[in-house]
Write a structure and sequence with these properties.
The protein is α+β, with helices and mostly antiparallel strands. Helix content is 18%, strand content 25%. It starts with 19 loop residues before the first strand and ends with a strand.
Length: 157
């Protein structure tokens, strides 16, 4: 009888170090590892797609390509609530053309005519219970994918 063993070299996803120790199991039984170098914990395989590396960047990329929340959720096979929570975490500073001080008028300093093809979208979520609804609105420029404006709040705001 022959026994075949496979050995795979495992490296930390954060710092690429191979100084790892086992760090218990996740709720579904998957082995967790902890890096002795950067002290971060990770798994080799994830059962939920939202935890896989690169998913959060894909949400941002698809949003900039004018995909809606349901479309992103379907493409990445994750919950739409996960997409919404990631979009709420995305800082406005990502947009280099966002006007930080709307009271300051720069139109009097120079004559600029701005023409753009933009679209707006909204989505609804709730915090705690369905009586505590929150809405997110955003406007996106179609050609470049730049987010022109965004707002989170109640429907009456």
């Amino acid at each position: 009888m022959y026994i075949m063993k496979q050995l795979a070299k495992i490296a930390c996803r954060h710092c690429e170090s191979d100084d790892l120790v086992k760090d218990g199991h996740s709720e579904n039984g998957t082995q967790r590892y902890r890096c002795n170098n950067c002290k971060k914990s990770f798994q080799i395989e994830y059962s939920y797609n939202a935890w896989k590396p690169g998913t959060k960047e894909q949400i941002e990329k698809q949003t900039l390509n004018s995909s809606g929340v349901r479309d992103i959720s379907r493409n990445l096979e994750i919950s739409k609530n996960t997409v919404i929570s990631e979009l709420k975490k995305t800082p406005i500073e990502i947009n280099p053309f966002f006007i930080k001080d709307p009271d300051r008028s720069f139109s009097s300093e120079s004559e600029v005519e701005i023409r753009t093809d933009a679209e707006a979208d909204e989505f609804q979520s709730y915090v705690g219970n369905k009586g505590n609804q929150r809405w997110t609105w955003y406007a996106i420029e179609r050609c470049s994918g730049i987010i022109l404006a965004g707002h989170n709040g109640r429907r009456t705001d």
